[in-house]
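Protocol step 4 of 5: obtain the predicted structure for the target chain.
Materials: sequence only (see below). No template structures provided, no constraints applied. The aim of this step is simply to have a reference model before the mutagenesis design in step 5. Sequence pasted as it appears in the construct record:
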Amino acid sequence: MDYQKLATLLFPNLSMTREEIEAQYPKRKDGLVVTRFAPSPTGFLHMGSLYASFVSSVFAHQANGIFYIRIEDTDQKRKVEDGVQKILTDLKKEEIVVDEGPMIGGEYGPYIQSERKEIYQAFVYDLVQKGYAYPSFETEDELEQIRMIQKEKKDRIGYYGIYAKGRTLSLQEIETFIKMGKPYVIRLKAIGDFDKKFEFKDCVKGKIMLPSNDMDIVLLKQDGLPTYHFAHVIDDYLMGTTHVIRGDEWLSSIPIHLQLFRLLEVKAPKYAHISPLTKKDGESVRKLSKRYDKECSMEYYQKLGIPPKAIQLYLATLINPNFENYYLSDKNACISNFQFEYRKMSTGGTLFDLTKLNFISKLYFSRLTATELYQMILPYYEEYDPSFYQLLIQYPKESIAILNVEREIKKPRKDFASFSDVKKESWYLYDELYFNSEYQKEPIKDTYDLALVTQYFDEVFKETDDKETWYCALKEFISDHGYAKTVKEYEQYPERYVDHVGDFCEMIRVSLFGRLETPDIYELLKILKKERIYKRLQQYETLL
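Step 4 output (structure tokens):
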């Protein structure tokens, strides 16, 4: 076979050679870590893809390396309108720092595979002229017949060995078929032996024995676009990718990919195959589904108001479990100061737990200052709850004070897991919402002595008292009216008392805030002040 003639026959109008293309791509600096996220342009960023992109960005940036985006759109059927823009927008919303990519720029573009068609063809041309690739003209029906024969013989399914009919075509037969306009693909002429295994070292899974590739996989489809197998090899080579971090469903493809790098005579990157995110479903565990699980959609978190940083902190615990102890033990802990390791990643399924995410998110919120939190919630409420947003900007000082309740203490409150929780846990401190009948309040019990509560505020409560003075004065007042100063006293001698301090505080809570449980009453009363306290006491009957 005259392979040079075959290459020219298949690519008569090639505009660039492999050597000319390689000259356009500068070599990355020695030792620079380069990773990538390579989604299809479906326009839908889900938790699984966010996790993959986050892992890739973390390992690049902790080494002061490069993390880039490459859009793999050679399967045109999956492409949606504005899909690339939507993915980039979602990554920006989730605060994933991207150094290079479509609409971002960089020296290694185009970063969209459909715009690199001639590049792939030049490299296939190179393989054809070296005898490592050939055209295949089988129709779908003919390929199906091959599969049927393999099933009957209980052979492996695929295009290989005696089933690779295209290998035996002469140059004359190929030329005749092309002149007839017969559609064809270009396949790899595999050099492996399936019965022979080789050792592969994965960054996450360690050493694995894999069979050598003997499948003549498709390199270029009939439309001239490459398959994933071929495109990613060319792109990772030209773009200087040092570490390919991807789902472990691609592990079985490693023999193909390493063989392609070998035939192209270029160094392969290191591979890290990460476990999929899983979910507990009853007694079983299954893969997190973008079709069935709400927590797979990033829109779910955006509407709920779980900030990107909280999500990233949780994902960091999935990358390396020891990150959690690091974060729990140091209030100044951050992702950029932690050294992640491939060897500490899970080699099985990675359980995604919303309860754990909420726990991490609450801890994250508790470490923010009230002013920081106030600034963060404004854009959320402007988009999702404009009426509450108006209250926030109408009362900035008061809102910050509300957010600061039980914040600057040794064990700060942890009742916010999302931005939406802010309103749920503080609406009763805004008169516009408290006196709104749409908001359900705890009913006033017949046993409550609201006249006594009013008397307390008339005779005892002072806005200027510090907390200790306030509490001592409250206990003296209730003691004079038959209440036990402590729960313990009441439990020892219940017949001596009307009730105890906890019951009196409950009356304050319900009559002023409409809730049985609130943060520290002292701090809330300091926010309301006497004028608003009396307004609420005077109108409590309308709240029944």
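Step 4 remarks: The radius of gyration is 33 Å. The CA atoms of residues 119 and 310 lie 41 Å apart.
Proceed to step 5.
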